[in-house]
Amino acid sequence: MFQSKKQGNLTSTTDNFEYFTSADIGWNWSMLKEELEAIPVDESELPQ
Questions:
Q1: What's the whole-number mean pLDDT along residues 28-40?
Q2: Hey, where are the domains in the chain?
Q3: Structure pTM?
């Protein structure tokens, strides 16, 4: 399993707040890849 962490600040000037946020996207992918199957499609089949 690979590890990858996304982190940054969530800021709103209209509501006057700033929060630090982070997520372990490597863990999320490892859980999803067991449930999802990647299949080839033609570009015309993709949503617009």
A1: 73
A2: 1-32
A3: 0.33
